Amino acid sequence: MSRRLDVDVAIIGGGLVGSSAALALRGMGMSVALLDRGYCGAQASGVNYGGVRRQARPREQLPLSQRAHAVWPRLTGLIGIDGEFMRSGHLKLARSAADMASLEAYALSVADQGLGLELIGHNDLRERYPWIGGDIVGGSLCAGDGHANPRLVSAGFASAARRAGAHVLENTAVTAAIRNGAGFALEAGDGLVVNAGMVINSAGAWAGAFAEAFGEPVPLTRIYPTMVVTEPLAPIMTVNTGMEGGGIYARQVERGNCVVGGERGLPLVDPDYSRPRGEGALSIINRAAELFPGLRHAHAIRFWTGTEASMPDHNPVIGASGTTPGLFHAFGFSGAGFQIAPGVGEVLAELVRDGTTTTPIEAFSITRFDQRREPLSSNHRTADGSRADPDPEPHHRGVLS
Amino acid sequence: MNGRPQPLVVGAGPAGIRAAQALVAAGLRPLVVDEAPACGGQIYRQRLVPDERSARALYGSEAEKAQALHRDFAALDGRIDYWPQALLWNLRDGIADIAVGRANRRVAYDGLVLATGAADRVLPIPGWTLPGVFTLGGAQIALKAQGCAIGSRVVFMGSGPLLYLVAWQYLKAGVDVAAVLDTAPFQAKLNLLRGLHLAPMVVLRGLRFTAELRLRGVALHYGVEDVRIEGQERVAAVAWRQGGREKRVACDGIGYGLALRSETQLADLAGCAFCFDKRDRAWLPQRDAAGRTSVAGVYLAGDGAGIAGADAAERAGERAALALIEDRGLPHRRERAAALERELSRIGRFRELLETAFPFPAHWVAGLSDETMLCRCEEISVGEVRRAIGQFDIGEINRLKAVSRIGMGRCQGRICSSAAAELLSVETKRDLDTVGRLRAQAPVKPIPLVLVPADLPREAAE
Ligand SMILES: Cc1cc2nc3c(=O)[nH]c(=O)nc-3n(C[C@H](O)[C@H](O)[C@H](O)COP(=O)(O)OP(=O)(O)OC[C@H]3O[C@@H](n4cnc5c(N)ncnc54)[C@H](O)[C@@H]3O)c2cc1C
Ligand SMILES: Cc1cc2nc3c(=O)[nH]c(=O)nc-3n(C[C@H](O)[C@H](O)[C@H](O)COP(=O)(O)OP(=O)(O)OC[C@H]3O[C@@H](n4cnc5c(N)ncnc54)[C@H](O)[C@@H]3O)c2cc1C
């Protein structure tokens, strides 16, 4: 059974990155096929922690992050639901004077970026956030940050793209992509051929295979952050919290459940799937009960992990292919792509239409891996990604020091 | 024991007890864990506090079986490790996480027998979340374990053998049984007669229950439709339609259930392959006649692997243990194994007949009103689920969970997931087996946030 579909743009991967690009491209009047091997938004984009946070990102990500920041409060108009987005603020805590100093250094280094960071000392912190226990010396608040429900936001973008006229094809894995005379031919699912002028590779943890197929292998590995959720509790947490140096991050949703992260899981025999390790989940809940006394009598009702692409420098790959005209990459978000994805979608649409974008993305070029002589790992090898160490709330401050 | 970790048996019901016994007979020392404070499982559950009731009063015609199981399990003392009130909440890579109070014990096992049993299956109906409404199993537990009734004037309704059994047990306990409402027409019951040669005792016992209920003036209604539970603060009455006529009966307690649903989460976490079972309308872990799953060293026994009842559970438990013993290279009791399989196959044929006598009222699903609560943990109505299916164009149960929260609450879909799958299938005009099954997630039941890693007791660590 062979079918043909001709479109302007084919998008490989219906995570939040691919779906938001699809919606933006439809807004520009282009015809779009959004292809996913499973269900749109069922991978990292739909199972992440839900942190919508600019704070603690490396400086080079901030313009893109600010662009996305403008999209989040407009979700209802854009996709028909608010995605439970709450501008609660994001509070990064410091356990030691050294950690506090690094929060201060960060605040200083991004002072011109408009994050509005507020440094909070010990006493002030105790007064404003009495629900936080443990030995905390201070924190840094980004009042404009918040959190949202990834399950709804990601499925919501894909549904909105479908309603806007995109061909959304689920359970349709792209098995081959080749450049031909006019553009690209993609083989997908059960005998489908998609002919497209341009292609976006937004296949998340699976994107490496496509980059490699076009002659530009990348050192992509996989990580599997572990999440825990409690039963619904009376309101306790007033902000989305993280910890400098990692180990725990937590938020409370409106209906009362607390979502906590801070460890990494391991893949199953099939590395496309992962599950929490018992001891990892235990560490998270014990840390949560220690840092938040209000959780001491609560129960954990569910644990999960997701499969995420990570790059060695913790920056994503976004932009034009270095080898193939008409091909654009957007993957490798290294544990922090949820907040910026709606901005990435807009940027991709501009790149497709204009060949350029108004948002600086040079730092994310795939060509940055050309010169490096580190050993490359294929995306199907997960050894590097399966390190089961404590998971820092993704932060990227290496560039600052 | 030559340095290999001990086998682990989850569940001390009829299946788990017989499995443990066979393992001990082969010279192994299994670890048996069960959430309950005492052995017996669902059907042979023991009293929380001893009272003056005899085994006969508690277990009726099954008293001897119950006593034999309790006695045989007690006789294993010293030759097994037994952790009661122990919740096994995660399985991975040959390691089990077991919560005992606020301590967490991690156990490496070699050979795993899952005898996790079943729970009541329900479809939501208007008013089913009102105080005073219990599952049939819950109504029985109240009587058996706590020695109290769910009301002073009680209606039992639904489908499945438990319906008449529990109604009869309440009658015997002196409770006013106001009515029994059966979702199936009376003709369906005639199918039971075809099973006389397969399980004469069971059929005769069933006939006795209905006869005694009738004799004592309990109204039995067949083929009830459009059932609604009424009441403000709590249950006051139940109303239904029957042969085109509206009926109603006042009551202050209701036992409701539509047969049983296997507890399969642990098999899922253990990595077992599943297949759709038309008879149980559910995805069940695959197993062969001996109880071997798709994962080497993992065995299934009892109602957790498909509903077959207590007698089958005893045999399946022993059969699975014999498979474990054989796979471990110990002497294999081939003839005993074959005999057990023959009996299981006979009971299996009877099960098929039971299903025709107590069919699931699948046709109720289309008529469910939007206001009816589907998921009680997360308080999600049928209408909300219908809207989510439409809004996100959903055709798969895990996607439905993601966008509607169905199955995300405390019970992890144990109560609502079969109803949600039925609803998704009806709404999207897909066959039930194509809407998928909810993937299990740890912890299989809620665990306290303060759960401290504990060193293993010496005897278990060997
Ligand atoms: C547990 C967890 C917690 C996280 N927490 C946060 C957070 O709090 N804040 C934050 O900003 N970020 C967070 N992240 C990161 C964030 O979720 C990701 O960076 C982001 O969702 C990536 O989006 P994506 O579209 O690139 O990838 P995905 O959502 O993984 O989408 C990729 C899609 O490509 C599809 N695909 C793969 N191969 C093919 C093929 N051959 N053909 C067709 N389709 C294919 C997949 O099925 C998948 O749907 C977290 C990630 C995880 C896993
Ligand atoms: C409430 C109820 C009442 C019933 N009453 C009757 C009846 O009166 N007559 C009849 O013929 N049938 C009855 N049944 C049917 C019953 O399932 C079988 O007859 C029989 O009990 C099955 O035996 P089993 O060993 O397979 O499972 P069960 O007897 O159900 O035993 C399973 C055991 O596993 C334990 N367990 C499960 N998961 C875990 C875990 N994660 N960690 C630790 N322990 C775990 C449970 O606590 C339980 O003790 C009833 C079923 C239910 C649900």
Biggest sheet statistics of chain A: 8 strands, mixed
Which ligands appear in the coordinates? flavin-adenine dinucleotide
Strand content of chain B: 15-25%
- Structural class of chain B, by secondary structure, is alpha/beta
Proportion of helical residues of chain A: 25-40%
Beta content of chain A comes to: 25-35%
User: In CATH's first tier, which class of the largest domain in chain A applies?
Assistant: Alpha Beta
Per DSSP E runs of 2 or more residues, the count of β-strands of chain B stands at 24
Keywords (chain A): Oxidoreductase
GO cellular component, one term (chain A): cytoplasm
Organism (chain A): Bosea lathyri
InterPro entries (chain A): FAD-dep_OxRdtase (IPR006076), FAD/NAD-bd_sf (IPR036188)
Q: Summed up, what is this model?
A:
Chain A has 401 residues and is of the alpha+beta class. Chain A is built from ten helices and 22 strands.
Description of the molecule:
- The complex is a heterodimer of chains A (401) and B (462).
- Chain A has two domains: 3-48 and 151-219 and 311-372, FAD/NAD(P)-binding domain (3-Layer(bba) Sandwich), CATH 3.50.50; 90-143 and 225-305, D-Amino Acid Oxidase, Chain A, domain 2, CATH 3.30.9.10.
- Chain A is 26% helix and 26% strand.
- Chain A has ten helices and 22 strands.
- In chain A, strands 1, 2, 8, 9, 10, 11, 21 and 22 form an eight-stranded mixed β-sheet that branches.
- In chain A, helix 1 (16-27) links the parallel strand 1 and strand 2.
- The longest helix of chain A is centred in the last third of the chain and has 18 residues, at 337-354.
- Chain B folds into three domains: 8-119 and 261-354, FAD/NAD(P)-binding domain, CATH 3.50.50; 122-258, 3-Layer(bba) Sandwich (FAD/NAD(P)-binding domain), CATH 3.50.50.60; 362-434, Orthogonal Bundle (Arc Repressor Mutant, subunit A), CATH 1.10.10.1100.
- Chain A binds chain B through residues 39, 41-42, 46, 80-81, 151-152, 155-156, 159, 162, 230-231, 268-269, 275-279, 281-282, 285-286, 288-289, 295-304, and chain B through 90, 92, 95, 97, 104, 106, 269, 271, 391-393, 396, 398-399, 402-403, 408-410, 412, 441-443, 446-453.
- The complex binds flavin-adenine dinucleotide (FAD) (2 copies).
